Amino acid sequence: MDTASAPPDLESLLADVKPDSAGLLAALHRIQAAYGYVPPAAIPLLAARLDTTPAKVFGAISFYSEIRSQPPPQVSIGWCSGPACRLKGSDNIRRALEAVLGISLGQSTADNGVGLRLVQCDGTCTLAPLLRLDGRYRGPLSVGEAIRLARELKTKGETPT
């Protein structure tokens, strides 16, 4: 890892967190911004800083869907579950992605190269059925286009043996 881009150590990142500041969520967001997720080592440290238990910190991490406890996949595919997408065949697109990538909704490939997650409708129905590829909209898509996309992403993540 390039040390110029390495995240700060947890101690310095949480140096200003105080027990009575009620800053748990803000601290979790700060850690995730630095690391891409909240590493396990941060939980007891943050609990000590806030004078609470690691269980309560973990409870907050598991409650808030935007806080990750695992490194994010290199590429994130968001499958839209909105009515317009589903009426236009997005269930078939999801099944095709799952089959090609070998994962289910909410999972990542073994190498953490590609993750497939549920996203809610945000009103971009003119693109239905759509996917969000690292936050960028791709649609309207056919099942064939989704299969080609999944194969391309899967191939990029594979290393020669």
Describe the protein's architecture and organization.
The protein is built from seven helices and five strands. The chain is an alpha+beta fold and about 160 residues long. It has two domains: about 55 residues; about 80 residues, Glutaredoxin. The chain has a five-stranded mixed sheet with strand order 2-3-1-4-5. Strand 2 and strand 3 form a beta hairpin. It starts with 9 loop residues before the first helix and ends with a helix. About 25% of the residues are buried. The model has no long low-confidence stretch (mean pLDDT about 90).
Describe the SSE topology.
Layout: H1 10-13, H2 24-35, H3 42-49, H4 54-63, E1 75-80, H5 83-87, H6 90-101, E2 107-108, E3 114-119, E4 131-133, E5 136-138, H7 143-157
Parallel strand pairs: 1-3
Antiparallel strand pairs: 1-4, 2-3, 4-5
Helix pairs in contact: 3-4, 6-7
